[in-house]
Amino acid sequence: MQNIKTNLKTLRDGGDVSFKHQIGGGYYISITTGFFCVDFRKFFLPHGQTEIKPTHQGLALRLREWEEMKRIVDAINTQYPSLGTALPCYQGDDHLNQTGALQCRDCYPFVTYDY
């Protein structure tokens, strides 16, 4: 959240922003100069290529909508604190070692193995 906040401030101040952060399962949050929104989008890796590409599956929130969503999430977390104790996938049994973690398709959806 702090990275999003920092990049949104830079965007509002007229600076150049090219922020993209993976949130799991091929989904990314991005903020880009020229687009006054916070974009949640699924990406994919085209066969035979090395650069991921965005899909049409996603949601772009205008800055005003982003601020409203943050307020709603805060209210939900206050009302239902148990939601805040949900564990990310890397806490599971498949992440007990580096090999298991690297094979997680939620954390690393575009990794291919040649074995």
Number of strands: 4
CATH homologous superfamily classification: Transcriptional Coactivator Pc4, Chain A
CATH topology: Transcriptional Co-activator pc4, Chain A
Domain count, please report it. 1
How much strand content do the residues show? 25-35%
Oligomer: single chain
Q: Which parts are unreliable, with pLDDT below 50 for 5 consecutive residues or more? A: none
Q: State the major sheet.
A: 4 strands, antiparallel
Q: In CATH's first tier, which class applies?
A: Mainly Beta
Assigned CATH architecture: Roll
* Strands in their spatial order, largest beta sheet: 1-2-3-4
* Gross geometry: globular
SSE sequence, one letter per element: HEEEEHH
Rg, nearest Å: 17 Å
Let me know the average pLDDT.
86
What keywords describe this structure?
Transcriptional Co-activator pc4, Chain A; 115 residues; globular
